Amino acid sequence: MRKLATLLLCAAFTLPSVAQELPQPSPSATLQQRVGLTDVTVKYSRPSVKDREVFGTLVPYDELWRTGANKATQITFSTPVNFGGEEVAAGTYSLFSIPSQAEWTVILNKETELWGTGNFDEGKNVAVVEVQPMEAETQESFTIDVNELRNETALLTLHWENTKVAVPIKVKTQQKALENIKVAIGEAKDEDKWRVYRNAANYYFNNDIDDKMALDYVNQSIALNRDSWYSHYLQSEILADLGSYDKAVKSASMALEMGQAEAEAKDQEFSYNKMISEAIADYKKKMKK
Question: Class assignment of domain 173-287?
């Protein structure tokens, strides 16, 4: 009998282990969203209501909550951000909150390996933000989203049951973009530099940064490559914005002529014919005023 028990014990240790994949009550999720030039990544678990009363019962009011389930929710910013009015360095943080009926406290903390709230150290907090809860349509599974996207702003929203809170996020997209332009101009190959200058002109013009700098960039682009109809059209838009309508007409006319010739060579119609023709008519009308 003892030999049989020994054999069975040995077999238990020598048999291959069986991986058992089962559904989780609070499945994991990963959210990735770009805000301007900043990547925001959230890794969290999503508990569900399951016919329970959530806030005030399952999640007690005025107590620290892991803001999800299982391992603490993680949020990563690829650049520095302003989180609800507080400056936060690029990096990965845990996301905690203290829900209440009148106000939520949303917290970013340096410790990212916590399970639950037992070893939470408020001395590692990097941002503590007060936000107002809002009534919302019922959400069965806890959801974190980054929405209301603009070039330099977004909202981090937490939504579960019929409650939603939103923390404003601000990023320095324009500052980063201007830095990227300088780097791109410095590193571009000679054959690509005309396009880099044009992209810079386009960004400066369409974001109302500096029309004179935009004109300088597009002029440098055209000096390197005169064969792009779009470069001439962009030049006309910038000139018109600066009030030089006579020069704008010449640039737009050049763009129209080049675009039509390019399309005809391919036995196609120039799809921007109407847009540029209307721009020329508008410039001429403004010249007469």
Answer: mainly alpha
Distance CA 211, CA 92 (A): 38
Q: Say if pTM beats, i.e. exceeds, 0.85.
A: no
Residues whose CB falls within 8 Å of the CB of residue 112, separated by 6 or more in sequence, listed in order: 72, 74, 92, 93, 94
Could you tell me if 245 and 283 are in contact, meaning their C-beta atoms sit under 8 angstroms apart?
A: yes
Rounded Cα distance, 86 and 72, in Å? 21
User: Is residue 2 over pLDDT 60?
Assistant: no
The 10s digit of each residue's pLDDT in 106-142 is 999 999 999 989 899 999 999 999 999 999 999 999 9
Task: Compute how many other C-beta atoms are within 10 angstroms of the C-beta atom of residue 223.
Answer: 10
- C-beta separation of 245 from 224 below 8 A: no
7 — pLDDT class (breaks 50, 70, 90):
very low
Q: Which helix H or strand E contains 73, and what residues bound it?
A: strand 73-77
Q: How many residues does the chain have?
A: 289
CATH 1.25.40.10 residue ranges of the chain are: 173-287
Largest CA distance in the chain: 111
pLDDT in tens, 139-182: 999 999 999 999 999 999 999 999 999 999 999 999 999 999 99
Distance between CA 46 and CA 24 in Å, rounded? 10
Q: CA-to-CA distance for 157 and 46, rounded, in angstroms?
A: 14
